[in-house]
Structure formats: C-alpha cells, structure tokens
Amino acid sequence: MSKTIASAIELFSRLVTAHMSPARRAAAKAIASERLSQIQTIQTARGTFQVWCPSARSLHDPIGFGRDEPETIAWIDEHLQNGETLWDIGANIGLYTLYAALDPGVKVLAFEPGAASFANLVRNVELNRMGSRVSAYCIALSDHSGLDALHMANTESGHSMHAFGQLDTVIGTLQPKFSQAVIGYSVDDFRRQFDLPAPDHIKLDVDSIEAKILKGARGTLSQVKTVLVETYGAEREDGTNEIVEALLSAGFRQAAGPDDGRHRNELFVNKGDM
C-alpha cells in the first residue's frame, strides 16, 4: 500500500510540473522532496528527541525505538551517569547517541563510516541541538589504522550489514552494492593520536568486525566500565566466541541478560569497576 501511494505521489508531481521548464521542474521537485522528508518525534521516559528520516530505511528504526532493543535502553538508563562518556561505535543515524545525550551531563563520541548515515547522524545532532555534547566522526574503527574500503550492502541512510576491510558480515559473505573509501583507526591509535581519554562505556554494533575493534582497543578496555555488544556471528567451530573471549581476557565479566528471547546485545562489566 505504501509503495502504491508513493508511486501516485510521484506521478502527481510529474503531472503538475509538466508545463514547467526543465530547471524550474527540477527545483520544484527538489523543494517538494525536502518538505516531504519525515521528522519523527520520539518520546521516552528520559526525554523527547527528533529524528530526520530521508529514506524509508532510516524511518524503520525510529518507528521501532523502544521495542527493538530494550536492553540497550535499559543499559543506558542504568549505567550512564552524569559526567561520563559513551563511545557509540556503529552509530548509524544516531538513535542511541541521541537517547544517551538527552542527559546534558553525558558526552557521546559517535562513529559512523557510512556517508549517508553519517550525514543523517549529524543532521539529527543539529536538529536536537546536541552539538555541545555529541561529537560525530565519519571514520571506521578496526584492529589497525590505515586506509581501506567500507563494503556496503546498501548505501542509503539507515542501512546496516556493512564491513570495513573485509567482505564477511555476521550473516555471511557480502556482495557489496558499493565500496566506500574510508579512513580507519584502532581505538588505541585514535586515542593516542588525538590525546583522548578512555570512554566510560562503549556500545559496539557494526555487524562484522566487532572482534577486530576490541583487539585494537586492548590498551583502552582496562579503563572502560561497561561494553554492550552484539556477539552473534563471532562463533568459532569449536563453540567459543571471539568477542566474548576478547572481553573476558580484558578483565570483563558477562552480565546475565533478561531471559525473554528479545535482546540482541550482551552486557560486559569490567571486574575492576565492581
């Protein structure tokens, strides 16, 4: 039904602009496109924020916010304290960045290498006037620093299942629609080069190289209080999990999650912070 209505709107725009010169027709359609873009208002117990949705996929997660990842919301509510810093690695359009930054005392560094999603993320930070407490970077994090490609399943804003420096994702080998040139850093190199303190908390969700990112953060993890990460896709043939092992070896314990079959992300707590 939605696609049928969208096609009707598109046809109508062609009809009403048919008499115009090519330049005026293009300008009219551009203005109409801007005015038709969606801004979703999300109301939460923590506060209200807005999300600009220029594509159908970027609209999907805001509509499902609060239901799709309840464990992420619970983690932010319980663990992020005034004066602390969150690194949102794989921030996409910034839903959880924005939610965390509703607390004016929380600082967020958001990392999103996909060009369209990054532009959407920055627009959302601007829309919510959070520029003083959210710093967004269009870079990838990995196990080393250097230039490589972000292999993308879809380039539109809000899409996921991309992989930096490899074709394997958590659901299999990617057939990329486009490969975008991206600058990558290890977490440790990024902090060292720009003289940054360690984050208090890390949210890690990139659908592919989580284990590599943790490997590149070995010098940082001892100072991190909690890590929330999706462990799916990192299983070895012997039944062990590369992400779990990396965090356990760094001094974390795996916290018990809700036994409801809904949560996708696992919480790890630094034993030294207990």
By secondary-structure content and strand pairing, the structural class works out as alpha/beta
CATH topology: Rossmann fold
Main sheet: strands, sense, barrel: 7 strands, mixed
For the biggest β-sheet, the strand order reads 5-4-3-12-13-15-14
Tally of individual helices:
9
- State the fourth-level CATH superfamily: Vaccinia Virus protein VP39
Helix proportion? 25-40%
Q: How many β strands by DSSP?
A: 15
Poorly predicted regions: none
CATH class: Alpha Beta
> What's the architecture in CATH terms?
3-Layer(aba) Sandwich
User: SSE order, as H and E?
Assistant: HHEEHHEHEHEEEEEEEHEHEHEE
Estimate nothing, just give the exact number of structural domains. Answer: 1
Estimated share of beta-strand residues? 25-35%
Give the distance, in angstroms, between the N- and C-terminal Cα atoms. Answer: 52 Å
Q: What's the pLDDT, averaged over the residues?
A: 92
Q: What is the overall shape?
A: globular
Rg from C-alpha positions?
A: 20 Å
Report what the structure shows.
With about 270 residues, this protein is an alpha/beta fold. The protein has a single domain, classed as Vaccinia Virus protein VP39 (Rossmann fold). About 35% of the residues lie in helices and about 25% in strands. The protein contains nine helices and 15 strands. It has helices spanning about 1-15, 20-35, 55-65, 70-80, 95-100, 115-125, 185-195, 210-215, 240-250, and strands spanning about 40-45, 45-55, 85-90, 105-110, 135, 140, 145-150, 165, 170, 170-175, 180-185, 200-205, 225-230, 250-255, 265-270. The strands form four sheets. A seven-stranded mixed sheet has the order 5-4-3-12-13-15-14, sandwiched between helices. It has a four-stranded mixed sheet with strand order 6-11-7-8. The chain is globular, with a radius of gyration of 20 Å.
